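Support request from a user on the community tier.

User writes: "When I paste my C-alpha cells into the form, the page sometimes reloads and wipes my input. The last time it worked, I copied everything first. Here is what I submitted, just in case something in the input itself triggers the reload:"
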C-alpha cells in the first residue's frame, strides 16, 4: 500500500515535470516560428466529442459534472486537430483545476455564419477583474494556493492564444469571482472549395519554386448524394473516411496528401509528373476497389468509384484549370461532385 502511494506520487510528479517541459518547449518553438502547423479538414464535432470522452473519468473522480453540448451534425473545418486538442486540453484542465467539487463544466460548440465558436465554461472560483487582462500572458498565475497539488507554469493560456491565432482565430475570457469562468474561441470558416484552392495554390507555388510538377488525382464516388440521402450522413461519411484511409495507405511519399471534399477525395502528389501519375492512380484505384469488395456488407449497395488525374504544368496552366481537368478527366461522372 505504501509503495503504491509513493509510486503514484512519483508518477504524478514525473507527469507534471513532463508537462512543464513540454509547455516551455512549445513556447520556445512558437517564438522561434518553428511550430509545425498542419491543417486538414476535420469534423470538429467528432473531435470535441472524443476529447470529452477522454476527460469524463477524470471529472467523475473529482465529482465534477462535465456536459458536452455538441450537435450530432458534423462541422467540417480546416484546422490542425492536434493544436485544437492542445487548446481544449488546457482549457478543460484549467476548468477542472479551478472548480471545486460538485461544480459543472460545459463544453459547447456552435456553428455560426462564417465562423465556428467553441467554449469551455465552469462554475469555479473565477478570475478577479484586475487579473483578466493578464490571463493570456506568459507565467501568469492567480489565486494559487500554496502546498502540493497541480501547480502549472502559467503557460497554458499563452500557448492556447498563439495556437488559436495561427488558425486566424481569436480567444476571449469572461469571468466573475466565485461564480465561474468562460473561455471562448472562434475559428473563421473557410469554404471547402477555398480550402482545396489554397492547397492547390500552395502546391503550384512550391512546384514553380522547385521546378517540379504537381499532379492531382480525384476519386469520385458515384451516386454519393443518393447514398447519403438513402442511408444517412453517418454511413456516407464513414464510407468517405474509409476510402480516404485506404487511399492514404496506398501513397508512398510523405508529401502526398489526401483532402476530403463533400463527395470526392483529392490527392495531391507534389513532384509526381505526368509519366508517373497513371501508375499512382492505378495503385489507388486497386487499393480502394479491394477495400470496397472486402467491406461490401457494410454498404447498402455496390459502391462505384471513378478516378481522374491531371498534372501541372503539362495539362493545366493554373490552379483552376488543374482542378477542372482532374475532375473532367473522370470517365463517367455522375451529377454533383
Ligand atoms: P499550465 O497551463 O502552464 O499548466 P496554469 O494552468 O496555471 O499552468 P494557464 O492555463 O495559462 O496556466 O492559466 C493561467 C492562470 O489563469 C491560472 O493559473 C489561473 O490563475 C487562471 N485561470 C485559468 N483558467 C481558469 C479558470 N477556468 N478558472 C479560474 N482561473 C483560471
Ligand atoms: Mg493551464
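"...and here is what came back when it finally went through:"
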Amino acid at each position: 500500500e505504501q509503495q503504491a502511494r509513493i509510486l503514484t506520487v512519483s508518477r504524478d510528479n514525473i507527469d507534471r515535470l513532463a508537462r512543464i517541459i513540454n509547455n516551455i518547449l512549445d513556447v520556445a518553438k512558437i517564438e522561434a516560428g518553428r511550430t509545425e502547423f498542419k491543417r486538414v479538414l476535420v469534423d470538429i464535432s467528432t473531435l470535441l466529442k472524443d476529447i470529452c470522452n477522454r476527460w469524463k473519468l477524470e471529472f467523475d473522480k473529482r465529482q465534477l459534472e462535465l456536459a458536452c453540448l455538441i450537435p450530432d451534425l458534423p462541422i467540417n473545418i480546416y484546422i490542425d486537430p492536434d493544436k485544437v486538442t492542445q487548446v481544449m486540453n488546457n482549457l478543460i484542465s484549467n476548468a477542472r483545476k479551478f472548480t471545486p467539487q460538485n461544480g459543472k463544466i460545459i463544453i459547447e460548440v456552435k456553428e455560426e455564419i462564417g465562423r465556428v465558436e467553441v467554449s469551455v465554461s465552469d462554475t469555479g472560483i473565477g478570475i478577479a477583474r484586475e487579473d483578466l487582462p493578464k490571463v493570456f500572458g506568459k507565467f501568469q498565475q492567480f489565486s494559487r494556493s500554496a502546498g502540493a497539488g497541480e501547480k502549472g507554469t502559467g503557460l497554458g493560456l499563452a500557448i492556447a492564444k498563439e495556437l488559436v491565432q495561427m488558425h486566424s482565430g481569436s480567444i476571449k475570457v469572461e469571468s466573475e469571482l466565485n461564480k465561474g469562468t468562460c473561455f471562448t474561441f472562434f475559428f473563421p470558416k473557410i469554404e471547402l472549395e477555398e480550402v482545396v484552392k489554397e492547397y492547390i495554390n500552395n502546391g503550384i507555388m512550391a512546384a514553380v519554386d522547385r521546378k517540379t510538377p504537381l499532379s492531382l488525382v480525384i476519386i469520385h464516388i458515384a451516386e454519393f448524394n443518393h447514398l447519403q440521402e438513402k442511408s444517412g450522413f453517418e454511413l456516407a461519411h464513414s464510407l468517405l473516411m474509409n476510402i480516404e484511409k485506404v487511399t492514404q495507405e496506398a501513397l508512398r511519399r510523405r508529401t502526398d496528401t489526401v483532402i476530403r471534399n463533400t463527395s470526392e477525395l483529392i490527392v495531391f502528389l507534389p513532384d509526381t509528373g505526368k509519366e508517373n501519375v497513371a501508375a499512382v492512380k492505378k495503385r489507388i484505384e486497386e487499393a480502394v476497389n479491394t477495400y470496397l469488395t472486402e467491406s461490401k456488407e457494410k454498404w447498402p449497395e455496390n459502391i462505384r468509384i471513378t478516378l481522374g488525374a491531371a498534372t501541372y504544368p503539362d495539362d493545366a496552366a493554373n490552379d483552376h484549370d488543374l482542378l477542372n481537368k482532374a475532375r473532367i478527366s473522370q470517365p463517367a461522372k455522375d451529377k454533383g461532385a
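Agent notes: The reload is a front-end session timeout and is unrelated to the input. Residues 90, 93-94, 152, 156 surround magnesium ion (ligand 2) (CB under 6 Å). The chain has nine helices and eleven strands. Escalated to web team.
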